[in-house]
Amino acid sequence: GESVGLHLPTLSVQEGDNSIINCAYSNSASDYFIWYKQESGKGPQFIIDIRSNMDKRQGQRVTVLLNKTVKHLSLQIAATQPGDSAVYFCAESNTGRRALTFGSGTRLQVQP
Amino acid sequence: DSGVTQTPKHLITATGQRVTLRCSPRSGDLSVYWYQQSLDQGLQFLIQYYNGEERAKGNILERFSAQQFPDLHSELNLSSLELGDSALYFCASSVAGSGIDNEQFFGPGTRLTVL
Description:
The complex is a heterodimer.
Chain A: E1 10-14, E2 19-24, E3 32-38, E4 45-51, E5 56-58, E6 62-67, E7 72-77, E8 86-94, E9 97-102, E10 106-111
Parallel strand pairs in A: 1-10
Antiparallel strand pairs in A: 2-7, 3-4, 3-8, 5-6, 6-7, 8-9, 8-10
Chain B: E1 5-7, E2 10-13, E3 19-24, E4 31-38, E5 42-50, E6 53-57, E7 64-68, E8 74-78, E9 87-94, E10 105-106, E11 110-114
Parallel strand pairs in B: 2-11
Antiparallel strand pairs in B: 1-3, 3-8, 4-5, 4-9, 5-6, 7-8, 9-10, 9-11
């Protein structure tokens, strides 16, 4: 189940640094946003979500920021670890339509 | 482990053939979603079932069909296969069919190769 060889933008960071992955969405009706992590050989794994009535939500080592004005979503990973290396996808949906629309993904490479 | 299972893990077949992919959702989840992940299209939503009934349709070709059975497992049928159908096919499940905070859990996927 690895991410097929998509030509993805790549973010390369040093272990211990903070990572910021960005995502732009286009649907103004979207009210629910999720970040997924996809490691090689696996399906997408839920990281964190946020509703449109919030602009920030924090989890364990991760923070999602939502800017509805410019339709922008970001995922911040604190103290990035080698195990964070993966492809990260943002996804959006709305209350009436639970199917997710995925962004194109960003490959995160953590250098030891 | 998400709790969602998919079989088979790999499938190799020829153009024109028909295959069936199977998905078992997490225990208690009523909704099943199918997604296709291809080289040039990323993750694309195909179809959703909720408690046995079709709930939403995405970019699913007419050659493809799906169903959800009374025990809530789902099958995705792909027929008259073309080279371009080669992709990873993911199943996801969630508790409900709509509403907010309805996290989807993904299975490990089936890699389909059409030769």
